[in-house]
Structure formats: C-alpha cells, structure tokens
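Researcher: First entry.
Model:
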Amino acid sequence: MLEAYKQEILTQTLEMRQREVTEYQVNIDNFILAIAQIGSDPDMQEFKQQLVDLLASNQREQRKSQIMLDVIQAQLNG
C-alpha cells in the first residue's frame, strides 16, 4: 500500500516537473528571440538587459528542475 502511494506521488511529481521544464524552455526561447529582436535599439537596452538576466535565471532554474526530474525518473525506474 505504501509503495503504491509512493509510486502515485512520484508519477504526479514527474508530470509536474516535466511541465515545469517545458515552461522554462518556452520562456527561454521567448527571451532569446526578444533579445535578438531588440538588437541595438538604444531605447530598449534596459529592457534587453532585464531579458538577459531573466534568461540566465530561467536557464539556471530549468537545470535545477531537470535534476529533480532525473531523480524522480530514476526512482520510478529503480
């Protein structure tokens, strides 16, 4: 009974982490495209820097989520 409950929680958590990793990727792709679109527009450089910072933050958070996703998958497979 306890093992089945653990499997259920891990499966739900796996789905949540997969969604989280994907959501970070959507943000990362959007930030990259927006940064490229801004280019060297002098009026948009402050916004561009905000996007660069958000890009770095989202990439870091995605790596964390991916680690947790890998751990959950290992538990489900092991």
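Researcher: Second entry.
Model:
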Amino acid sequence: MMPLPPRPVRCRVSLLLAIALAGCAAQHSSGSSDGFGLESRLRVADAAAQAGDDDLAASLYAAAAVAAPDNGSVQVRAATALVRSGKVAQARQVLFRYLKAAPADEAAMRTLAGIDLDEARIVDAVAMLDRLLAAHPDDAGALADKGVALDMESRHAAAQALYRQALGMQPDDAAIRNDLALSLLLEGKVREAIAALAPVEDSPTLPARARATLALLYALDGQPVRSRSVAGSDLSEAYVSEVAKAVAAGRSLPKT
C-alpha cells in the first residue's frame, strides 16, 4: 500500500512557531500563568495576517481590542483585520465603541470613514469626515475622502473643489490627482482630466491605479500611442468603448 503524501503545512509552521515563541516571551516578561499577554497576542495576530489566515488574525486582534480598550492603535488594527476577514459590522462596532471614549482620535475616525466609504455608507462617511475636518480643516486626506463620497453621490463639482483644495496643500499627491481626474471623467471632461493627472505621469512612484486611469484617458482622447506608453500595452477597444458609453450616459464606470 502506497504511503499517503504528507499534508501540506505551508505557512502554518511559521504561525505555530510564532505562537510558541509568543507564549514563551509572555511567561518570561510577565510571569503570567497563561503565557499569552497583549503584546504576545498582537505578535501572533501579525503572524497570522502575514500567513494569510485572516480569520485567526481578526479573532486575535478583536480579543486584543477588548483587552486594551484605551489603546487606539490596537482598536484600528483590530478593525482593519476584521474588515479584511469580511466582518465589517464587527469592525464598525469596535471603532464606534472606542470613539465614544476617545472622540478625538484621528486614526480611528479616518479608519471608520474609510470603511463606510468602501461600504457605500455615504451619509455616515461624510459625517465622520466632517467631524475630522472640524478639528483639522487642512487635512488633505480627509478632504479627498470627502470628495470621493460626494462623487459617489454624483456631486462632482463639489467633489472637485475639495480635491483642488487638497492639492493646494499636496500638489504632488498622485492619489488625489487620480481622484480629481476620475471625477472630471465622470462629467465627460477628458481633456481636463488629463491635465489634472499628466503632471505626475513621469513619477517613478506613480500608483498603478493612477497609471491605469491616465492610460484610459489618453485612449479616450484618441491618443493610442501615449496610452500604450503609459500602460505598457494596448487597452481593450471594447473596454475603452464601454467607458465612453458609460460616461456619455452618466453611468458608473465599468471595472477593469
């Protein structure tokens, strides 16, 4: 009888090793009988996340959040891990609970607003961003995030005003320029969108998302050579045509 092949362990070995080491570290540092303190739990959660075990990471981060209710960094890490594992409602609950005790925590407010944006909870996202901007009116990231929320409501002119305000503080921010370009594209203003994004075209750190937007804009503007230069290959004619039709009809842009 042929022996069965060994079960794959992949990254579980490193995860189990991390758990064992964390337990030893906790015993030496705190003398705890269970050997599993907050820092140890966080180290294991980090190891689980790196190993791709999002469910275990979320569980450990959530437990750490309960154990350290006053630690904003832990709360944000827990919420982020919970979202990654699909537990969005629990992530929002973690941040809501923390913000009741620490209403001025910027990182928690920003994280919650980001979660709400991803979930298309526009009213909630704008309320949180307004709260953040009331304390920090020159927060370029919050201004841009609010712009995204307004674009999702088709309030493009108002969104563009916020993007431009943010760019006045961070003119080389490719992500904000990309948001502005997409907002202009949604109004059919292809040339203006190119003008907004082209200044960072040659940046070695241009995000892939912004590069894809610029390549699309050049294709829509009838500049296939420049589009190919930016994208590294020709865009699908069907995709470019679909985007052009969506913009003309005032619909949401198709996904790449």
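Model: Note on the second entry: DSSP finds 14 helices and no strands in the chain.
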